[in-house]
Amino acid sequence: xxxxxxxxxxxxxxxxxxxxxxxxxxxxxxxxxxxxxxxxxxxxxxxxxxxxxxxxxxxxxxxxxxxxxxxxxxxxxxxxxxxxxxxxxxxxxxxxxxxxxxxxxxxxxxxxxxxxxxxxxxxxxxxxxxxxxxxxxxxxxxxxxxxxxxxxxxxxxxxxxxxxxxxxxxxxxxxxxxxxxxxxxxxxxxxxxxxxxxxxxxxxxxxxxxxxxxxxxxxxxxxxxxxxxxxxxxxxxxxxxxxxxxxxxxxxxxxxxxxxxxxxxxxxxxxxxxxxxxxxxxxxxxxxxxxxxxxxxxxxxxxxxxxxxxxxxxxxxxxxxxxxxxxxxxxxxxxxxxxxxxxxxxxxxxxxxxxxxxxxxxxxxxxxxxxxxxxxxxxxxxxxxxxxxxxxxxxxxxxxxxxxxxxxxxxxxxxxxxxxxxxxxxxxxxxxxxxxxxxxxxxxxxxxxxxxxxxxxxxxxxxxxxxxxxxxxxxxxxxxxxxxxxxxxxx
Length: 491
Known about the structure:
By secondary structure, the chain is α/β, with parallel strands linked by helices. The protein has two domains: about 375 residues, Alkaline Phosphatase, subunit A (3-Layer(aba) Sandwich); about 80 residues, Arylsulfatase, C-terminal domain (2-Layer Sandwich), CATH 3.30.1120. The protein has 14 helices and 18 strands. The protein has a seven-stranded mixed beta sheet with strand order 4-8-1-10-12-2-13, sandwiched between helices. Strands 15-16-17-18 form a four-stranded antiparallel beta sheet, covered by helices on one side. Strand 17 and strand 18 form a beta hairpin.
């Protein structure tokens, strides 16, 4: 094994952690192989349930409060358009250390720069295309392109009869939740991304080590999968999640309001949506298998660190919800993470159930490449787990940060093995006993019996906020709503 191995990163979009080994909810033969030959981090979580902040965390090793990306950088009401000036990504370090950098597919870290601006070679999508968010940053005005779709829509009356998989939304346009086909967003996008990656691997420049990022759009909603993969799953065998009957009467009203949209779908269509989501995961697995085959054909499989993971999860029917958003449930935060490194992984086939964050991958990549830095990270290197030398101390809690996406909402959470506490700046808080209620169906936050737990969790939340430059601490009477405020960080 060379001192500086190649690094291949395959990041899917909106993939639940339980759709991959060892959970195995979806049929994924290629990921099954990767897990047998590598290490699975089965308790990996993103810091925010949205693409941009989570991808920024992956690339920087920092939390949103540190890197500055809080929501979708391209929407008209974006809170920020890109990383805090001067923020480095792991690609900068690899480039400076002599790695060749290749990028295929989705970036979604910044609207004001793309991977090519950081030294990555990319052809698809065209790095010369400037996003609406980039133009907004240049002009200082919000991008108003979003209005065009509604102006066009207004020329036709809103439909009043719902068809299968449809959710009627007067004035917003009918949403089709699932269907059959290859890449709903842009025809053939994921296949083209993988084809581009295959071409890079086949025609790579010899000599220096390389890092290749492959970013697909699936299995993001709406769930459109090719027929071949839909046939993997029998609808009669599909079950809705155990938490599906939870109508969230003891949870924030926004959660219920979100579910109201999806309740237009009858039970059989809810199960069809699960089927289509799982089929989409199987399609992503097949695309990943093509990249593995290309590495093998090029003779690079055994000198390349391969990482498969996703930016965030999907509710996939949990509590009657779909996609991702403010509801702070496990499905939106739990993501797959599998690392294969021949010669670098001791005792392959292991499942590590330590709490892992997407912030851990930047320091891991730097250590793999032998790069030393004096920068501080929110994450920690996973190298001890790869070497089968678990550290004596590792985090016993995970924290999340979101200020909302297209619809704002201040939310922070802390999760241990026993408890999850959610501070909602927009509504009442949540507390779940994860040992007794892993499905997060019974909110205990208002029960006086758990007042001490709430206070302890608030203290942990504020200490994490203090240590990670999070200024969600305004004391104004109308917004200082936590049951125990930021002073708990110092008690």
